[in-house]
Amino acid sequence: MPNNIFMNFNCKKCQEEYMDGKYGRNKSMAELARLSIGRTKTGLQVWCVRHEINVIDMDLPLDHKLMKMPLQCELCSTPECEHII
Fold first, then answer.
1. Rounded to whole angstroms, how far apart are CA atoms 68 and 10?
2. How high is the pLDDT of residue 84?
């Protein structure tokens, strides 16, 4: 599947630092991004790893395809574990 992204999510602090020249101008914001993107119980969250802040938290309808996928813990082999809240 090709990359169909036409607008990226960016951390506000990263974007401010980029515009101030902290990271130079040799890379784009997309190349500098340190984002973690994952499913929550109510949708998706985009998290800035560099600044440890929320970028966006999107609630999805319960009938959305992504919400119907079973939660799978990265640490355990079963969906029912102590890590999933």
1. 27
2. 53
What single-letter amino acid sits at 5?
Answer: I
Of 39, 36, 79, give the one whose Cα is nearest residue 59. Answer: 39
- Could you please report the per-residue DSSP string of 8-63? ----HHHHHHHHTTTT-SSS-HHHH--EEEEE-SSEEEEEETTTTEEEEEEE--TT
Question: What's the pLDDT tens digit per position in 16-74?
Answer: 999 998 888 788 888 888 999 988 888 889 999 999 999 999 988 878 777 777 666 66
Maximal CA-CA distance, the chain:
46
